[in-house]
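ARCHIVE CARD
Drawer: 12
Card no.: 0347
Subject: one protein chain, sequence and derived structure
Cross-reference: see card 0346
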Amino acid sequence: TESEVISRPKKVLILGSGGLSIGQAGEFDYSGSQAIKALKEEKIQTVLINPNIATVQTSKGMADKVYFLPITPEYVEQVIKSERPDGVLLTFGGQTALNCGVELHKSGIFTKYRVKILGTPITSIIDTEDRKIFSDHVSQIGERVAPSAAVYSIQEALEAAEKLGYPVMARAAFSLGGLGSGFANNEEELKALAQQALAHSSQLIIDKSLKGWKEVEYEVVRDAYDNCITVCNMENVDPLGIHTGESIVVAPSQTLSNREYNMLRTTAIKVIRHFGIVGECNIQYALNPFSEEYYIIE
């Protein structure tokens, strides 16, 4: 409702970026810093949790109060208990903050202390994080996700690969920096991959291999009033199969035709609206270099 959109919090808790790999995931420090600046401009008190002292967002003069604590449900609950914030931002700390936010929501901590989740609703976070729910939602609006299956054991992984046909790509869900992901050309390779991935994550995604396809992504912003803009689109110099964190990305894309560019842009806006995301979001595609066939990766 209108009043809900306008009611302003007095104090906001931000889950920070936590530990960062060098050369990767620095954007979460940057986006968190921007969030703090924006809140300060609006005269809203900011409380930040971030165990990483080597970040911009923990610098003096940024947040009103900084807790150098791990971003885990136990510690975050302690901070909520003593600070009593009106709202919390989960979308500025990367995967660590999202996972932590989902756990706190499920255990009812936010409700208990009357903390409002600002920006993207928690249901949208869960819907986009859980690959199975994500692909079902995407199909509802007539778009396609790469043919894949979510599995929970090595046996299920092998059965899924039989159905999809080798080669396949295995990815651990809810994982950081593409941990436990890779390609498998046969049963042996998949067994080894699945064993490693399931040690890190409970869910494993088996995808039809799209090795060699172009990897294109769009950054889209949507506000609570349903205004959408695409900030930019990017293209990985390396084809699909090389983790984005280890690849060079060029913005704007260099090899898309005008038609391809607009086709993917329209889809990006359609998807972000369907999921009800509020704030910034990134959508990744696999695009066949020889035709206009594409799949949404995440």
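Annotation on reverse: The domain at 211-296 is CATH 3.30.470.20 (D-amino Acid Aminotransferase; Chain A, domain 1). Residues 22 and 255 are 29 Å apart (CA to CA).
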